[in-house]
């Protein structure tokens, strides 16, 4: 298969789809859980569905060069819509389904969207709300007809109706679609994915068929992915990670994607499917660990003690056993017993019993969190990349996993470090251009063809890349020591009671931090201690909660003291924010990356209070609700000191 993909006949995704329909027509390509029952479509059935959808779009006037907006949760027909647009020489443009209506306007206007395929009534309503500002939007197609009975606008179409139009079109013009697919070229734009916009307006990243097929081929050959593998497709379709794993790699290798019933049933559906291949950003692995720790706190004393004992064994030797390294017979025996009593049941609860390869990417993962999963027998690896590189720059080879690196460059990818420490990438996986932004394209790609990632990093002695932080975020403390906020934040977020953290310290004498508590974990902790609270703000202000978080911060400081480069970045003072950081309030991106500059500006009064020696600070903040209403949240926030530790090097010198 991999050798054939290099042939011109398989140089685009529609051609790959037709290839699978011919060589494995009855192999499951897509599954979806609907009304509690898993539905399955084979590769030949998917090819027919895509053919009908593409021809239906053509009947409505969709043509080569048009951009197609796709909005909704992970649904089979939304994935098929991507390939349908590509069949006609169009470009799919997935949008984040949880974005509010006003957030969608920019992308709809910037991409010149004329056609949109959406999941349901909720997404239709968002587009109707935006239609006055997007007069170019001509047709809105919807997958789920529930609630749409009384919508009679002539530009609204059910996908069932459109596909039926396409089937009639195919009968009348049987050569049409094959002719359109034959016109497609490897260098054509296959998808446009918008950046998260952490520092400004999002940019449309144009990736070709050749670049994503190269990224898919590299990953599939690296991890020996085969048609018998299957993956749970639940991450936002607008995210480059989902597009690589659930669309590009699946279409390349011919394995099965599984769409969960809803966001609330992901864990249940994952246990039922038992995927062999899994991908999630660090925040998902953080949330899963938080759920595990909550359950263990609620367990009986015997079960709780058993868990903590065997987790100690796992931390000592689990990762080494997974990597096939030498481990003493006593530890091997204890680990085998722990696998029977703790690790195996835990993997089963997490839906990870059959996982052969798991990846995390999208943000740096804390070494402690990484070690936890590998220690219980989950082959979790780090992937490093960006939207502009098809999410594929570095991969970690089996047996060569390091907790603080992202591995060596992927096959066919060149990586070098600039004089200022910035990571630069060159290879076939790179973007073709930013949509209608030649100046930005020229700024991002230098004369030698290297893409400037904006990340700071270095290669270790084994040629593995270590990412420190975003280059623009890496700074220095007043004493000249390095300050890498993301690294510190990941140390703090390993603790199940901390959901989000934002560290400050560039140019300052010491590091201070904002903390968001995890409502589920801390709420459970408070209830077991009979601490009454009325909501997030009330719980966050409790003295007992401050003591709990201080303990977490001081443990993180103890670990930072062992890090030669960042031992000076221990957190001296912190406060617990009165509200959760929220994408709707522009504090996080839709991929939940901290918008550091915006937060520093919005909460400048709190930063000043942290550094001026105050013990408390009043603040009132405007918040946006999902229905568009606005409100205000106010509180008198307490500022607490945290104990720091003498750096390890200083201890040894003493």
Describe the 3D structure.
With 654 residues, the chain is α/β, with parallel strands linked by helices. The protein has three domains: 2-263, ANL, N-terminal domain (Rossmann fold, 3-Layer(aba) Sandwich), CATH 3.40.50; 281-384, no CATH class; 475-653, ANL, C-terminal domain (GMP Synthetase, Chain A, domain 3). 40% of the residues lie in helices and 21% in strands. It contains 23 helices and 27 strands. The strands form seven sheets. Strands 4-3-5-6-7 form a five-stranded parallel beta sheet, sandwiched between helices. It is globular, with a radius of gyration of 25 Å.
Corresponding CATH architecture of the largest domain: 3-Layer(aba) Sandwich
Structural class, from secondary structure content?
Answer: alpha/beta
Number of domains: 3
Helix content: 40-55%
Tell me the name of the CATH class of the largest domain. Answer: Alpha Beta
Tell me the number of helical segments per DSSP (H or I, 4 or more residues long). 23
Largest sheet: 5 strands, parallel
Strand content: 15-25%
Could you give the distance between the termini?
A: 62 Å
User: Which oligomeric form is depicted?
Assistant: single chain
Number of strands: 27
Pick out the low-confidence regions: 1-7
Shape: globular
In order across it, which strands form the biggest sheet?
Answer: 4-3-5-6-7
Using only CA atoms, what is the Rg? 25 Å
Give the CATH H-level superfamily of the largest domain.
Answer: ANL, N-terminal domain
CATH topology of the largest domain: Rossmann fold
How confident overall, as mean pLDDT?
92
